[in-house]
Amino acid sequence: MDVYAQADALPDAVTRRARMQHLSAAGIVSAVTGFQGVSAARGLGGDGVVARVGLDPSDAAGAVGWHTALAGLLELDDHLLRSRSCAAVAAAAWASAGRSSLAEVLAATVAGNEVAGRVGLATALGSPGWGCPAATAAGVAVTGGLLGGLDEDGLAQAVSIALASASWDNTPSADGLAMAEARAASEGMRAVSAARNGATSAEDILDRVVEKLSWMPLHGAFSGMGRAWLTDTISHRRFACAPAAVTAVESVAEILARHVKAADKRLRTDQVERIEIHGAAMLGAMASSGALEPASIPWSLPEALGVLVARHDLGAADLAPEVLAAQAERIRHVAERVEVFVQPSRTAEALTAQIEVIGPLFADLGWRDARRMLSPLRSAAALSGGEGRGMEGVRSVARLLRAAVGLRRVSGAELSAIDVASWQLHLPVEVQLYTTRGGRWPERRSLPEGSPGADWSHTCGFVFGRFEGTGREEAAQRLHGAAPSSVAWPLLAAAVGVSADS
Q1: What is residue 487's DSSP assignment?
Q2: If you write DSSP's letter for every residue of 221-254 in order, what string do you get?
Q3: 252 φ, ψ (degrees, to nearest 5)
Q4: Interatomic CA distance for residues 262 and 256, integer angstroms
Q5: Closest by Cα among 102, 75, 84, 81 to 19
Q6: What is the total count of domains within the chain?
Q7: I need a surface site. Which of 48, 171, 282, 466 has the fewest CB within 10 A?
Q8: Max alpha carbon distance in the chain (Å)?
Q9: Are residues 381 and 337 in the same domain?
Q10: CA dihedral of 434, 438, 444, 449, whole degrees rounded to 10
Q11: How far apart (Å, rounded) are the C-alpha atoms in residues 157 and 201?
Q12: Residue 199 included in any domain
């Protein structure tokens, strides 16, 4: 496969997102490096060089796995529509760049995104999670294989080997998700080496993977290569929190900022009477309090908001163990006052945004399958009062599903039939923060910051903000504006913070 030909075919918007993907991954890894919690990732095979964020050419698999673990450790990593492969694919490009041009690196990055995204999307009706380790393994194999000089047959074998080697578990525990993705990334790189040495895998491995991971594989997700770009669906996270909680955290952050403007001082934790969060079903799993541990807090909305109010930020530095210990009383004061209310109507709103865009993929979906999709919503509606407003939300999704089922008469159920660039991630929430002095601070959000459709300049601002104080601000700007013909590795190395000779 000619990587230069791939680069020439990339739309400008897709190339722009791939550049930001590299900058975001470099900034996240830099923020987490040296964090006490990263010691758990040492089992991936990285040595001292890798631990300093270098890319050890003698252990590319360990290096890529290490970087993937760092990026996902605190829920700061980027994600596609249905894959958390963004940092892993970027790291695979760093480890394989050699003397490739920036155009080649970006093309290989996009190719990895497209394959990983399709595997993840094809298995969407299988797990409520946001990740798919098998998708990450496949994406890494594509990126590493393209830059490593594999021909089309070798590349196909690398992907097959990666899929066969990666975990087929779509529901790892929250605290194990980063490690599951990291192991998959390592397997993707090992698959490239194995394919180069003549190893092969079963030809039907992709079918077996999607059948294992999904009760209704969306085979149309594998179409539209070169016409539908899943890279357009990359979402960047400003705060360290699980994807489902992004808009809730952003809402409270906005309230805190408004309070500073109005009162000319920060809201103190002891001034918080309660925080009400009204959102979709995805927040339900995050409503319980958790331990004050760095990797646990992003998955517990009460604790995450406790840190946010105590620190007025929620990044890697705010989750350092010594910071959590010093702020423990303040964090718990706020966490105990967070109330989460799951509303089926908002769940329906979130799902509606998805179905309206990716509906054609459901063309092979029978109504019995559609009813299976509705069952979690019906349960949530029952818990919220049965036949009231909650059931109206269920019915609205049911109507959309009927329309999607009907599409099989007019659509080939292919990704090329979808305007992927118009896809947006909607997570509707309404937040009310009440103060001890009788104040009420409301905020409503649906579209997360850093996601498709959000203000691009704001996204660039917080991604570049990850480099502040690192001494690599200029390196990040150089990578962002470099000509496609530039040799990629010196630019990437400077942004990542390692020697270009490593």
Answers
A1: B
A2: GG--TTTS-GGGG-B--SSSS-GGGHHHHHHHHH
A3: -65, -40
A4: 10
A5: 102
A6: 3
A7: 48
A8: 71
A9: no
A10: -60
A11: 6
A12: yes
Q: Please indicate, yes or no, if residue 299 is contained in any of the structural domains.
A: yes
Predicted local distance difference test score (pLDDT) of residue 346: 85
- Burial (CB < 10 A; 0-12, 13-18, 19+), residue 310, is buried
Determine the 3-state secondary structure of 98 from DSSP: coil
3-state SS, residue 277: strand
- In angstroms, what CA-CA distances link 314 with 161, 238, 244, 318? 38, 8, 15, 6
**Residue 279's domain spans which residues?**
243-342+428-448
pLDDT of residue 50: 35
3 state SS for 332-365:
HHHHCCEEEEECHHHHHHHHHHHHHHHHHHHHHC
Indicate if 40 and 29 belong to the same structural domain.
yes
Q: What is the pLDDT of residue 496?
A: 87
Contact status, residue 484 vs residue 7, Cβ threshold 8 Å: yes
Amino acid, res. 320: A
Tell me: do 139 and 26 sit in the same domain: yes
| Residues 6 or more apart whose Cβ sits within 8 Å of residue 41 | 65, 66, 69, 70, 73, 179, 182
pTM of the model: 0.87
Q: Where are the alpha helices (DSSP H) in 275-343?
A: 301-311, 321-326, 328-335
Residues of the chain below pLDDT 50: 4, 36-55, 381-390, 394, 397, 400, 404-412
Asked if 3 and 146 touch (Cβ cutoff 8 Å), the reply is yes
Q: Is residue 329 part of a domain?
A: yes
Tokens of 173: 């525990």
pLDDT, residue 174, reads 52
pLDDT value at residue 149: 93
DSSP codes joined into one string, 359-394:
GGGGGG--HHHHHHHHHHHHHHHHHTTSTTHHHHHH
Q: Does 304 share its domain with 442?
A: yes
Half-sphere exposure of 457 (CA within 13 A, CB side): 0
The CATH code of the domain that includes 437 is 3.30.1330.120
Predicted confidence at residue 63, as pLDDT, reads 85
Q: How far is CA 21 from CA 236, 414, 480, in A?
A: 8, 26, 10
Which residue, 75, 61, 70, is CA-closest to 37? Answer: 70
Handedness of CA 470, 243, 112, 228 (dihedral sign): negative
- pLDDT score recorded for residue 364: 61
Q: For residues 186 and 44, what is the distance between their CA atoms, to the nearest angstrom?
A: 8
* 469 conformational bin, left if phi > 0, alpha if psi -120 to 50, beta if neither: left
Compute CA 415 distance to the chain's CA centroid, rounded to the nearest angstrom: 20
For residue 411, what pLDDT is reported?
A: 46
CB proximity list for 79: less than 8 A, separation 6 or greater: 86, 130, 131, 234, 235, 243
